[in-house]
Amino acid sequence: MHKPTGTPITPKRRAGQPAEGTLPSRTPVSSPVYETAHRQGGDLRSYSAGQISLDLSVCHNRYGPPRHILKSVHELLVKHPEDLAPPPYGCEVPYLEAFAAHLGGVDPDHLLPGRGVTEFLTVLARVLSSPLHGGSVGSELPCPRGRGVGVIAPDYTETMSLFHYADFHSPTNPQDSAEQRLHRLRQAMTRHTGGAVILSNPCNPTGIFLTREDLLQVADEHPSTLLVVDEEYLGLRGGPELSLAGTDLDNVVVLQSAGKSYGMVGVRAGVLWTRNDQLRQRVASQLIRWPLSLLDAHVATAALYDKAWLAVTRAAIHDDAARLETLLASVFGSRVVDAQLHYRFVHLPDPLPVAEHLSNCGIAVRAFIPGGARVSGIRVTAPNGPQELALLTDALTTLPSIWASTA
Ligand SMILES: Cc1ncc(COP(=O)(O)O)c(C=O)c1O
């Protein structure tokens, strides 16, 4: 288990400020790639204009957004502009019904609407940090700050930052696996009895996935620990049968949004699912008066009803990603993490020279530099189709061999 030292893990540093932990030696801290490593995927502000022609640092469905929903937005704006006049009372109702159907027919009353998974992570980080509201499942057991919450690392940069006070359960081997992640989860659930454990599943950035059966078994074995599962990427792996939403366990919380699956992260609409009334009420009390804007609710609702679009693009993405994996494995060998997702992670002790080489070829990938509870490597989102794949193939062909499988 790793407890981050000193100040909380903060993804956004000022230019030139060194990261904590081991610093990669060969890439100057003034380089755009170094600066970008402290930002989130898709944030290309450090690169010069026009430098990047293929952005594989993003981690949403790059086939999105579904074009027909744009028509529905156009209709709202052009035919019913008066709908924008009043506060958006009740616009979350059809949205929650659509999300309940999207999750395989869960009870909409077990859902809360919010501005993406990020809003729920933010609220939960606050709610679960309080000694009086330590996340204990059935009671109001006091839960000392920082002792009651565990994060199964690595996780989304923002999660690790928001839960900076938590215990980080990091891999002990340089390369993580589903087995080790499950083992760490079991340990964390025991350690944080009366508190909560957070994990992303599939994991950002590695793509490692734990099955519904395994997660439910762990939750069932630890009824006094809250299990918060961030399923942001689940829709890009498979259908609602993979989700924990709908379980009859009281200690499970599920977070999802339509942003990544439908390629519309700019639409800020997510849900929290739990049948734990006490927790749902606590989170609801922290949400703002109108939890979604009319436009966000409208666009997300239209997208969620188009299951066929998601299934078709998911199949295309899995084909793209299988080709990506073959390409990456030919260069980096067993450093590539096996996953069934739209991105692949490559473990690299010093990822920046690889990211820099690719950016010089016009391709952005997400670099994770070592330090704190992070893993070290690059996350590459699948190129869409043969043309984009050819660009990446060319760029990797000219990668100096020192940074390839022997790096
Ligand atoms: C694991 C994970 N959860 C949540 C988010 C943010 O989700 P949203 O856009 O729904 O707020 C991200 C974004 O990268 C993520 O990687």
Helix and strand topology:
Blueprint: H1 32-36, E1 54-55, H2 67-79, H3 92-102, E2 111-114, H4 116-127, E3 149-152, H5 157-162, E4 167-169, H6 178-191, E5 196-200, H7 212-221, E6 226-230, E7 252-257, E8 270-273, H8 277-284, H9 294-304, H10 307-332, E9 343-347, H11 352-360, E10 363-364, E11 366-368, E12 377-381, H12 385-397
Parallel strand pairs: 1-10, 3-4, 3-5, 5-6, 6-7
Antiparallel strand pairs: 2-8, 7-8, 9-12, 11-12
Helix pairs in contact: 2-9, 3-9, 6-7, 10-12
The chain binds pyridoxal-5'-phosphate.
Pyridoxal-5'-phosphate (PLP) binds at residues 59, 116-118, 156, 200, 204, 230, 232, 257, 259, 265, 270.
Short description:
The chain has 407 residues and is α/β, with parallel strands linked by helices. Helix content is 34%, strand content 12%.
**Could you give the order of the helices and strands?**
HEHHEHEHEHEHEEEHHHEHEEEH
The tally of strands reads 12
The neighbouring-strand order within the major sheet is 2-8-7-6-5-3-4
Q: State the end-to-end distance.
A: 27 Å
CATH topology annotation of the largest domain: Aspartate Aminotransferase, domain 2
Q: Identify low-pLDDT runs.
A: 1-25, 132-146
CATH class of the largest domain: Alpha Beta
Mean pLDDT score: 88
Global geometry: globular
CATH architecture of the largest domain: 3-Layer(aba) Sandwich
Distinct helical segment count: 12
Largest sheet composition: 7 strands, mixed
Q: Determine the CATH superfamily of the largest domain.
A: Type I PLP-dependent aspartate aminotransferase-like (Major domain)
Chemical compounds bound to the protein = pyridoxal-5'-phosphate
Strand residue content: 5-15%
Output the radius of gyration. Answer: 21 Å
Structural class: alpha/beta
- The helicity comes to 25-40%
The total number of structural domains is: 2
